Amino acid sequence: MVQISPKIIVNLQRKAVIVRRHILTMSHRAKSAHTGGALSCVEILVALYFKIMRVFPKDPYNDKRDRLIFSKAHDAKALYAVLAERGFFEKKILKGYEVNDGKLAGHTIRHEVPGIEASAGSLGHGLPIACGVAYAGKLQKKKHKVFVILSDGECDEGSTWEAALFAGHHKLSNLVVVVDYNKLQGFGYTKDILDLEPFIDKWRAFGWDTREINGHDFSKIIHTCGEIPFDITKPSIIIAHTIKGKGGVEKHVNQVSSQYKPPTDEEYVEVMKSLHV
Amino acid sequence: MRNTFAKSLLTIAKKDKRVLLLTADLGYSAFEDFIKELPNQFINVGIAEQNMAGVAAGLAIEGYKPVIYSIVPFTTMRNFEQIRNDICYQNLNVKIVGVGAGYSYGPYGHTHHGLEDIGILRTLPNMTILAPGDPTEVRLATMSMMRSNTPTYLRLGKAGERVLYDKTPHFSIGKGIVLHEGSDATIIATSTLVSRAIEVATEMVKRKYSIRVISMHTIKPIDKALILESSRKTRVIVTLEEHSIIGGLGSAVAEVLAESQACIQFLRLGALDHFTKSIGLQDYMREKNGLSIRQVSSQILKLLSKVQHS
Fold first, then answer.
1. Which residue of A15, B67, B95, B182 lies most exposed, with the fewest beta carbons within 10 A?
2. Which residues constitute the domain of residue A258?
3. Degrees, nearest 5: CA angle B49-B241-B150
4. In degrees rounded to 5, what are phi and psi of residue A82?
5. What range does the domain containing B107 cover?
6. Count of A-B CB contacts under 8 Å
7. CA-CA distance, A69 to A120, in Å (whole number)?
8. How far is residue A135 from each of residues A167, A204, B61, B76, measured CA to CA in Å?
């Protein structure tokens, strides 16, 4: 197993704090919903963009890049914050999130800012698109990988499973799904609304090789991604166990409210104090 | 129409490796040559139309020219949101091909009738809609569409449609074709009913009326100039389509006429606004919806008599 120096982990953790500050600031400014799911995928995105994926921030569509399709696009502010921190565009653009004449929509629009690979927003669309991108990569015998960030909620959608079947059948080993499994969806816990369990078994049955990790643990994320493809004849999926609202306003952590409630002025001051770099 | 499409696409795909044919497990006895000659450019995605549209979007993002294929309702309605978000919103070069326009699959029942496709797809920005009227137009439409790089829907009949041209007409997306000049009434027809328009015009000659026949092979963008020209040349305009009278060619022409100064008698003829209880072969279904030669002629005669008495 590759050793990751503690210094790298500390730097990534610091980056995660900065990204959470951006997310809460965007949420507070625009009084926007979808904060909890943005906070739950911070470590996943930071690890991917700062350590795992091959990216070219100054040449964002370089053909050699690894692609990332952010299917849980309602949590776009996490992606915007990470892209800005990675140098894809200026951080001041984050001020244009969900405000009049802003550059950043609540759900991603392809090429709205450098690094956004696909328009998304309606759930269950990302994995099919990513399958097409990965299939194209295979046809052209290219080396890049195609990452997809799925929410657990969008695994309710039939189209996600149509694509899962397709990826398994066509052995898209260049395709990597990371599920942000924070176990909360629109109206409550996934286990109460439409239970996904046994979740990992379902993916296995569809022809994927699977890993299950703590999605907030940088060391685990990096080690696991280092093993991709887990099996050269299969697509890979990482079920990342996460906490919705992590690092945000305390009363919303692991609560449905984290999906809807932006921080109040007082909460914002308080939470920003707790997120010091 | 289906075989002409398959043959035309094969010719194009042989010269352009970026062309990929995706089907949701349909095309038996149409795509065998394609599969044999270009196996690497063919993907049967299985019976999963939503995924097919999404995969096509992903392929187009990477520079391919995917063509997705199924029966009209399955390739336009089952996956409508993927067409809207993944294809049109991103303005990607994906071609959507629907076989079985109107009552081509008449006996199968309403699930297989292609009656609302134009209506729903017409609302999507960036979308071009082609509805060729015979195998000649299918070949030309396929070639034109594959030269464009934007989302396009190609509406096909099924099999056995009559060839309407002696020589290859000039075909340009967005420009209707005048098949027959006339001075009393204009029939603007599309897709599987262009041949019916010619039959009606022939019938009307017996009654000493001269009918202008237009094949409106492009529904979006609609050929406004040709519609307005017809409103000046003849005092009656009738639209004819094997599609719901709501939302299709008739609606598109009505929109143009309503916003013009034209003073004409206008009638939309198409599938009635109902879920059919009767089933039967295409001609039977046309008769049930007032689209037989006799029924259409009689409607036009009524309008002509109104004009003559005004």
1. B182
2. 6-274
3. 45
4. -70, -45
5. 2-156
6. 94
7. 9
8. 9, 20, 11, 23
A197 contacts: CB under 8 Å, gap ≥ 6: A191
Q: How far apart are CA B181 and CA B284, in angstroms?
A: 29
CB A223 within 8 A of CB A195: no
Task: Scan residues 66-125 of B and list those with Cβ closer than 8 Å to A.
Answer: 66, 81-82, 85-86, 89-90
pLDDT digits (tens, 9 = 90+) for B241-293: 999 999 999 999 999 999 999 999 999 999 999 998 899 999 999 999 999 99
Mean pLDDT of A68-75: 98
Q: Do B57 and A169 touch (CB under 8 A)?
A: no
Instruction: Give the tens place of pLDDT for each residue, B294-308.
Output: 999 999 999 999 998
Q: Check residue A2 and give its pLDDT.
A: 62
Question: Do residues B139 and B220 share a domain?
Answer: no
Distances (CA, A) of B91 to A60, B57, B85: 20, 9, 9
ipTM summary value: 0.95
Is residue A1 situated within a structural domain?
A: no
Percent of chain B with pLDDT over 90: 98
Average pLDDT estimate for B126-143: 98
Test B90 with A110 for CB contact under 8 angstroms: yes
Domains in chain B, number: 2
Nearest to B48 among A121, A137, A162 (CB): A162
Q: How close B111 gets to chain A, by Cα (Å)?
A: 20
Average the pLDDT over B227-251 and give the result. Answer: 98
Question: B23 in a domain, yes or no?
Answer: yes
Give the total residue count for chain A. 277
Inter-chain contact A131–B54, Cβ cutoff 8 Å? yes
| pLDDT tens per residue, range A230-255 | 999 999 999 999 999 999 999 999 99
User: pTM value?
Assistant: 0.96
Tell whether A158 is within 8 A of chain B (Cβ): yes
**CB-based contact B48 A133, cutoff 8 Å:** no
Same domain as B129, residue B65: yes
CATH code where residue B222 lies: 3.40.50.920
In a domain, A120, yes or no: yes
**How many domains, chain A?**
1
What percentage of chain A has pLDDT greater than the value 90?
A: 98
Averaged pLDDT, A59-79: 98
CB contact under 8 A, B58 and A119: no
Q: Closest by alpha carbon to B97, among B130, B61, B123?
A: B130
Q: Which of residues 4-63 of B touch A (CB under 8 A)?
A: 40, 43, 45-46, 48, 50-51, 53-63
For position A1, what pLDDT does the model report?
Answer: 58
Strands of the sheet containing B65-71, edge to edge, are: B42-44, B19-23, B65-71, B95-99, B152-156, B128-130, B218-220
Any B CB within 8 A of A110 CB: yes
| Residue A123's CATH number | 3.40.50.970
Residues B78-129 pLDDT 10s: 999 999 999 999 999 999 999 999 999 999 999 999 999 999 999 999 999 9
B55 and A163 within 8 Å at the Cβ level: the answer is yes
| Chain B contact for A122 (CB, 8 A cutoff) | yes
Q: Has residue B309 got a pLDDT over 80? A: no
